[in-house]
Amino acid sequence: MNRNNRKTARWQQQEKKEQRMNKTEFIKVRCTLEEKQRIKSKAESTGRKFSDYCREMLLSGEVISVPKMTDNEKEAIEVLRRTAYFFMHISNLIKVKDDAWVLITQSLSYLAREALNVSLIPNTVLRKGQLNS
Q1: Which residue, among 15, 54, 12, has the nearest Cα to 35 in the 3D structure?
Q2: Do 80 and 115 have their domain in common?
Q3: Most buried one in 5, 15, 56, 97, CB count within 10 A?
Q4: CA 47, 50, 52, 54 torsion: positive or negative?
Q5: Which phi and psi (to 5°) does residue 92 adopt?
Q6: Is 95 helix (H, G, I), strand (E, B) or coil?
């Protein structure tokens, strides 16, 4: 089953509904052009829309900036996801006493070796057996 086709949980749906709630009221604040530009640049640096940034600042007094993920970070998350899948698969095979877990463990070892080659030490190639410390 593809994880992307799963239904969202009720609490996630409720959270999205709250986010999509129509905002019909306006608050006007007077400021100089320089102040407006500074606020806009701060909103952009946090990765939020101008109105979302202003609303969050007024309501909570701070906005926590979460930078967008880089391609390397996205790739690392994908590697972690695949690794978790392998561990789950190995665990299930061991529970049912299936000897196929050995082959899956070797595949996991290969995946870990490739992940190290790509992300942690890109200029070095690991030799066979070097990861088995």
Answers
A1: 54
A2: yes
A3: 56
A4: positive
A5: -65, -40
A6: helix
Alpha helices (H) in 2-132, listed in sequence order: 10-19, 33-46, 50-60, 71-95, 101-115
Task: Give tens-digit pLDDT for 65-98.
Answer: 777 788 888 888 888 888 888 888 888 888 888 8
Q: Count up the domains in the chain and report the number.
A: 2
25: nearest Cα among 53, 50, 55, 49: 55
87-123 exposure pattern, b = at least 16 Cβ within 10 A, e = fewer: eebbeebeeeeeeebeebbeebeeeebebbeeeeeee
C-alpha closest to that of 116 among 89, 83, 68: 83
The average confidence (pLDDT) of the chain is 77
Instruction: Compute the distance between CA of residue 105 and CA of residue 89 in angstroms, rounded to an integer.
Output: 9
- Residue ranges making up the domain that contains 21: 10-60
Q: What is the pTM of this model?
A: 0.41
Q: Do 56 and 80 sit in the same domain of this protein?
A: no
